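Example 3.2
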Amino acid sequence: MSAVSPRLPLTSTRVAITADRRGAELAASLERLGATVTWGPTMRAVPPEQDELLEVETRAMLAAKPTWLAVSTGSGLRAWLQAAEGFELRAELETFLGRTRTVARGSKSHGSLRGLGVEPEFVSRKETMDDVCSWLGEHIDPADVLGVQVHGGEVVGTLDALRPRLRAVVTVAPYRWVLPLDTGPAERVVERLVAGEVDVLAETSAPSVRNLFVIAKRMGAHADLLRTLRGRVVVACVGPVTARAFEEVGVPVDLMPTRPRTADLLRSLVHRVEAGDPEGPEDRGPGAPQPLSAALELVPGACAVRMGPTVVRLGRQEFAVLAALVRRPGVVIGPDDLAVQAWGHRAPDDATKIRHYIARIRRKLMAQGERLQTVRSVGYRYQPLPDPDA
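Structure, written as tokens:
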């Protein structure tokens, strides 16, 4: 008698992805977990070795002789070095990296620098360029020149506050994102989302999210896509930068891991499905997760939250704490992690201050404040739906 194959955790879950470079790898991982995947890249990277502008930017960077270098991504740094080899500039670039004070956006960029024998002076625990720029603001001099390895232009805006305080800011973008040559696969993603044939939209980068809406607009399906993503589809994001791209157009995020890693996103999705509502709509598979109809809509650009017709403005740290919870509904987050989200490199050693911030946020949210729940001796969580056990 043959053994019955075990049920895979994402069986009957229909997932759409729009990743470019690692899309095939992500699709394969989802399929191994049992998911049915629709993959349609919404962007493509201009190959660094074929990017004539990258050579121009590299030569300008070396000529400017920056006193500081901010590294945004590990993959971007590696691609930059590989492309510089084709420009016959790799040796000069490695010498520049070895003599320049560097800062890293997160653990991946830190790892790439250490692989070159370079130890950065600062690594953001928050893993954002905002935090890097905040730290630099306390250490730069007016005579300094700042070089920045950006990721497809995604972090250029965060440098605006530093520009008037420096002699110059020079940027280099090893990856530049443009629309794919063939938008057919991405259009199929839009069509299946709007037709109700997708349970989860899993996104790993902000440019791919923004391009998804660009493509939907060209198809005349922008409004339908927004309506779908605000309703029955679970929106899963790898991290806060990607989540913000959805929130900018009023789409709430249903799922985001504590660490911005693809593997953590997959684990969070599996956990969500396994703990999901078994009595979902008839048109969804039994393994499909249910979206959490968030009562709060984040408005990142205004540090505000929308509750129906009411808009509540928050302080910058208050918004950071609330966003960290709302973007991970149902997940308990400790006060130390929330402090890092709120203050970045300025996070106090004693995180009890978070308790006071939670109390202030609850007061500002009025009746909705009860959705911020305290888990004694552990931390806090955001419960978007009424807790039947409360």
